[in-house]
Known about the structure:
Chain A is an alpha/beta fold.
Amino acid sequence: MSPTFEDGSDELAETARRIRRHVVTMTAEAGSGHPGGSLSAVEIVTALYFRIMRHRPEEPSWPDRDRFILSKAHTCPVLYAALAEAGYFPVEELLTFRKVNSRLQGHAHTKTPGVEMSGGSLGQGLSFGVGTALAARLDGRESRTYVLLGDGECDEGQVWEAAMSASNYGLDNLTAIIDRNGIQNDRRTDDVMQLEPLSDKWRAFGWNALEIDGHRQTAILGALSEARGARGRPTVVIAKTVKGRGVSFMENNADFHGKAPNREQLAQALVEIG
Amino acid sequence: MVDRLETRAVAGQTLVELGRGNPDLVVLGGDLNKSTHANKFGAEFPDRFFDFGPAEQNIVSVAAGMAASGKTPVVSTFAVFASCRPYDQLRVSVAQSSLNVKVIATHAGIITGEDGVSAHAIEDIAIMSALPTFTVVVPADGVETAPAVRAAVSTEGPFYVRLSRPATPVVHSNGCSFELGRAETLREGGDAAIVACGVMVHVSLEAAERLARDGIDCRVLNMSTVKPIDRQAVLDAARDTGAVVTAEEHYLLGGLGSRVAQIVAAANPVPVESVALPGYAESGTAEELMAKQGLTPDRVAAAVMRAVSRKR
């Protein structure tokens, strides 16, 4: 059993375990991809798709659905794995990831059932989420929007344009989640560009800011519940995570930001994940 | 009929009229709403009007999110800020999912005038045409702007509509029959064909009149839909006249002239001459800049003479 979700339900932990296996398997099969930031986000994405969000895998464009926007679109393996597990498309299709004629593109793209936004250029997802949140408000829908950003992604200026506009319009139906795994493509985030004090920055931009352990199920569920109850302003959940979580040689290793495991590494990863 | 109209004012009024019949129409501005006339929409539909300040990257991606939720968002700002500044957002957020976002870009080209080169969008037709899912429309005047904006809003998919700052001469003083994707023949002639868009349509008509006095009859096509271009009209012009001239208030590379030359070269090589901007201009009045940059009836007429003289 995965060490994650130790204080949550076995069912969610089991789903998270399967998603982790999918992530390493599909990236190994593809021979490329971004496992590190996918593994750090497994508990967050699992909680959203299997506890928090109202959505219909059999009707991906259901107008009243909650939206999940993967702004860090390079970590699409975790999203594809969750969508497959939820029933948007067959699990076997995950092995077509990054291959020609596949619906599963190298960065998240709307040709995949259940993917809300085409991404791949950082910084655009929160703005997109401001758009879906404003549209929901205009239509009087209960639909909520969840945007997952990388911590390195917060170097992008557009994130802060979006942050300012979300609080300006009082979008309490919008929640941002930052996968604070501390490592971006090249190096540690603190060595590339100083992000801290990150929560204070968001608060200064008019947001509720919560800091949690992004691998503890109860913490994720609690924070998202608190976000749902907030009125008049958006909420950001800064989720402390471990890049490559669940695979010892990938953990806290920038090399696996954008590199797939080889056959031997895959075998070891699957043993470790269980 | 008035002699001149501001295309941007017509667009602002047209959006208001469209807003009355379309509750999903929303307008997103960037602190230039008086200049773009988007404020008229905001005055009538405050709930459907959003001013994001000068943050165009955000505006375009927000519009994409709204479109993905069933709205018809119109991004309204100056052409330089509507194309060059948020180009990556137009590419990834909008074009790659072919979302229903409408970019109504005002203040395009050198006739924006005194504000100088940073304010002169002379690259926008090229870069917006380079986004595979975008339609690019450049109305010839204020009369054609209304149906062009209506077509943009009522036709599914990403649109870029290119408008101007100053009041420009009215070409369609007897009304216009705008049809998306179809060239409009404003003048018949068998010696050469001038294919133009935007403010250069009027300049080309003047050139054709002068040439007619010298016994050279020019067909003049208003190619307001630059993309997808009316390929058949270009081929007909090449076949019927054997000499083609393009005219646009845009940089020479990547605009209408490039597209027309590509079509003619591939299908029926006849002489093609292009009247366009050789590079960045400077501050000055619209009239001064048009004259200095060679966007005049004389220069179009000279290009026609060159093309005609090259005929076999």
